[in-house]
């Protein structure tokens, strides 16, 4: 790709007699023609969009890629309509950014996608049948069952305060999607690779799951295990 400094130099010595015809916004889109020497440089402004930056400071969006526009402007011997390069079909209305269709449903996130708020889409909760989101990492320390409940209830993270320890069924969803969700302790270390669920099993125990292999068991609530809050 030609460097912008070189582009400007080449421009001043190549097609200085050529005119550029575009549509420019001024109470609507109106055609205008100017000498090629008025172009200071070509810039990219996004995928399949570029712009002519004039020496006056005016920026004219163009609905083709940087490389395509560069070729049209600087390709030796290029001619369109004699000594006029006509860009009216790719400027004006055609070069306006495409607005999102308000009637289109937003794209469904995939498991493991990081959401705009920084949480991770973890799948569908079997308990609520609604989307479930996880923090991007475990709680820093292992903790007892009670401490895990208190930690999740007080957690204020990523703009949300409605976190909870996953239920037994929700924890199994995290296990099934662990590769996409990422950042679990699955190295076989004990007890860190065991994760608390919010589902008690009798007065003294609660269900937990080892995310390295999916094993489930009842642990005494006083054990210190890992926690991944969800909402």
Task: Give a count of the beta strands, DSSP E runs of length 2 or more.
Answer: 11
- Alpha-carbon distance between the two ends: 48 Å
Integer count of domains: 2
Q: Report strand order across the widest sheet.
A: 2-1-6
How does the helix and strand content classify structurally? Answer: alpha+beta
Q: Helix proportion of residues, in percent? A: 10-25%
The residue ranges in which pLDDT falls below 50 over 5 or more consecutive positions are: 1-15
* Major sheet characteristics: 3 strands, mixed
General shape? rod-shaped
SSE string, helix = H, strand = E?
HEEEEEHEEEHHHEEE
What is the arithmetic mean of pLDDT? 84
Helices, by number, come to 5
Rg over CA atoms: 30 Å
Strand content bin: 25-35%
Give the tags.
231 residues; disordered N terminus; 3-stranded antiparallel sheet; 18% helix; alpha+beta; 3-stranded mixed sheet; single chain; 2 domains
Report a brief summary of the structure.
The protein has 231 residues and is an alpha+beta fold. It has helices at 4-13, 66-74, 145-154, 168-176, 178-181; strands at residues 19-25, 29-35, 39-46, 49-54, 59-62, 84-86, 120-124, 131-134, 194-201, 205-210, 216-220.
Describe the structure.
With 231 residues, this protein is of the alpha+beta class. It has 2 domains: 4-95, no CATH class; 120-220, no CATH class. 18% of the residues lie in helices and 27% in strands. A hairpin with a 3-residue loop joins strand 9 and strand 10 (205-210). The longest helix has 10 residues, at 4-13. It starts with a helix and ends in an 11-residue tail after the last strand.
């Amino acid at each position: 790709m030609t460097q912008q400094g070189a582009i400007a130099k080449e421009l001043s010595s190549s097609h200085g007699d050529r005119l550029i015809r575009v549509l420019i916004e001024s109470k609507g889109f109106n055609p205008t023609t100017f000498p090629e020497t008025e172009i200071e440089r070509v810039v990219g402004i996004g995928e399949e969009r570029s712009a002519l930056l004039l020496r006056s400071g005016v920026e004219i969006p163009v609905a083709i890629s940087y490389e395509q526009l560069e070729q049209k402007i600087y390709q030796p011997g290029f001619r369109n309509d004699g000594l006029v390069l006509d860009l009216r079909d790719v400027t004006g209305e055609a070069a306006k950014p495409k607005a999102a269709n308000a009637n289109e449903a937003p794209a469904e996130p995939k498991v493991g996608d990081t959401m705009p708020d920084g949480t991770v889409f973890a799948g569908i909760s079997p308990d609520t049948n609604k989307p479930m989101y996880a923090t991007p990492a475990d709680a820093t320390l292992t903790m007892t069952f009670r401490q895990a409940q208190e930690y999740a209830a007080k957690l204020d993270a990523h703009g949300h305060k409605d976190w909870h320890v996953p239920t037994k069924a929700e924890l199994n969803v995290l296990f099934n999607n662990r590769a996409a969700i990422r950042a679990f302790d699955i190295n076989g270390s004990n007890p860190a690779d065991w994760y608390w669920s919010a589902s008690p099993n009798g007065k003294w125990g609660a269900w937990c799951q080892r995310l390295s292999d999916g094993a489930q068991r009842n642990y005494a609530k006083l054990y210190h295990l890992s926690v991944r809050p969800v909402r």
